[in-house]
C-alpha cells in the first residue's frame, strides 16, 4: 500500500539538561544538538524505516536547513519529490529541552504555514493515489480540514494525529478512520465533556486510539472492549519522537493488513525501541528490530 503524509518538517534544536527547568528558572545545560524533526517528517521517516512506501507532502524554506531535511528524508527512503521549496520563508524549527526522560517543545512554524489549500489542491491527484493519508496539526488548520474532506469523498483511509491539540469540527471526526491523540491532547479536544478516558473510548470504538506514555496505548475494540497495550519496560533516554514513531508504525501495520490490535502491538514495540536512543528520527527503529522484539515478547 502507498502512504501519503501531509504535514510538517522542522529542524530540532535539542538542549540536554539534568531536568526540565521550572517557570522563570535558569539551569545549566549538558549539551546541544540539531536533529531533523517535525511531526509530518518524523512519521514519514518512521514508516520508511519500517519498509513502507511513503511520500511526504509539505514545505521548506529555500535554505540550507530545508535542503538538509529533504536530503535526510530521502536517505531514509521517503519519497520527497512533492516537497515544495518556498522563497523568503525560513524552514520550520523546534526548540526541545530534554531532561529526566521527558521533554518540552516550542515550535516555530516557518514554511510549514505555507502548506496551504492551494498546495493541497495542486497535489490532489498524487495524494489521492495513496491508500492511507496521514495528517497532524503542525500545518494550517484549514489545510488539514480540506485534505480530510477531499480524501473522505474518495473513501480513503485517513489517520489524524491531532497534535498540537486544538478544538475540532466534530463532522471531521466522522470522516476519518482513526484519530490518535495522547491523553493531554484528548483532554484539550474534548475538554470537560468526557468524565473519563474510558468514556471517550466507548463513544468512538475502533476510531479513537489514545497514547498514554509509559502506560501504553488504549483502544476500544468491538469484540474485546477497551484494552490497553502496555508500553515496553525499557531504559528511557529520550521521548522525543516516540509518539510519532508509534503513529508511523501503526500506519505501517495497517498497510500490512494487520488488525488494530496487531498494528498497535507493532507500534508499541517500535516506540519502545525509539525512546532508548536520542533524537526523533535518529532513534527510530528498522523493521527487523521491531520484528525481533515482537518475537521475543
Folded structure, characterized:
- Homodimer.
- Residues 2-286 form the Carbohydrate kinase PfkB domain.
- Substrate binds at residues 10-12, 38-42, 138, 244.
- Helices cover 36% and strands 24% of the residues.
- By secondary structure, the chain is an alpha/beta fold.
- Helix 5 (141-153) links the parallel strand 9 (132-135) and strand 10.
- The protein has helices spanning 39-49, 64-75, 117-122, 124-127, 141-153, 170-175, 183-190, 197-203, 242-255, 260-274, 287-296, and strands spanning 2-6, 10-17, 29-37, 53-57, 59-61, 84-86, 92-99, 102-108, 132-135, 157-160, 178-179, 209-211, 217-221, 225-229.
- The longest helix is centred in the C-terminal third of the chain and has 15 residues, at 260-274.
- The model has no long low-confidence stretch (mean pLDDT 93).
- The protein starts with a strand and ends with a helix.
- Helix 1 (39-49) crosses helix 9 (242-255), helix 9 packs antiparallel against helix 10 and helix 10 packs across helix 11 (287-296).
- It contains eleven helices and 14 strands.
- It has one domain (2-22, 31-296): UDP-N-acetylmuramoyl-L-alanine:D-glutamate ligase, CATH 3.40.1190.
- Strands 4-1-9-10-11 form a five-stranded parallel sheet, sandwiched between helices. The protein has a four-stranded mixed sheet with strand order 3-2-7-8.
Amino acid at each position: 500500500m502507498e502512504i501519503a503524509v501531509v504535514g510538517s518538517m522542522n529542524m530540532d534544536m535539542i538542549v540536554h539538561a539534568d531536568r526540565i527547568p521550572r517557570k522563570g528558572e535558569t539551569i545549566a545545560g549538558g549539551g546541544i544538538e540539531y536533529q531533523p524533526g517535525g511531526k509530518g517528517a518524523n512519521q514519514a521517516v518512521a514508516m520508511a524505516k519500517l519498509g513502507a512506501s511513503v511520500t511526504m507532502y509539505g514545505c521548506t524554506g529555500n535554505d540550507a536547513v530545508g535542503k538538509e531535511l529533504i536530503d535526510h528524508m530521502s536517505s531514509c527512503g521517503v519519497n520527497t519529490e512533492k516537497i515544495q521549496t518556498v522563497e523568503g520563508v525560513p524552514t520550520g524549527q523546534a526548540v526541545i529541552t530534554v531532561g529526566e526522560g521527558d521533554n518540552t517543545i516550542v515550535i516555530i512554524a516557518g514554511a510549514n504555514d505555507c502548506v496551504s489549500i492551494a498546495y493541497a489542491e495542486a497535489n490532489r491527484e498524487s495524494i489521492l493515489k495513496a491508500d492511507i493519508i496521514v495528517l497532524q496539526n503542525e500545518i494550517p488548520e484549514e489545510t488539514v480540514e480540506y485534505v480530510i474532506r477531499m480524501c473522505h469523498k474518495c473513501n480513503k483511509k485517513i489517520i489524524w494525529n491531532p497534535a498540537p491539540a486544538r478544538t475540532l469540527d466534530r463532522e471531521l471526526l466522522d470522516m476519518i478512520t482513526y484519530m490518535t491523540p495522547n491523553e493531554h491532547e484528548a483532554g484539550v479536544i474534548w475538554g470537560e465533556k468526557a468524565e473519563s478516558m474510558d468514556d471517550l473510548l466507548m463513544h468512538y470504538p475502533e476510531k479513537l486510539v489514545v497514547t498514554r506514555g509509559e502506560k501504553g496505548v488504549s483502544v476500544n475494540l468491538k469484540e474485546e472492549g477497551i484494552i490497553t497495550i502496555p508500553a515496553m519496560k525499557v531504559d528511557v533516554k529520550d521521548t522525543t519522537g516516540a509518539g510519532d514513531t508509534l503513529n508511523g508504525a501503526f500506519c505501517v501495520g495497517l498497510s500490512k493488513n494487520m488488525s488494530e490490535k496487531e498494528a498497535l502491538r507493532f507500534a508499541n514495540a517500535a516506540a519502545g525501541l525509539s525512546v532508548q536512543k536520542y533524537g526523533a528520527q535518529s532513534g527510530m527503529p528498522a523493521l527487523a528490530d521491531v520484528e525481533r522484539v515482537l518475537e521475543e515478547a
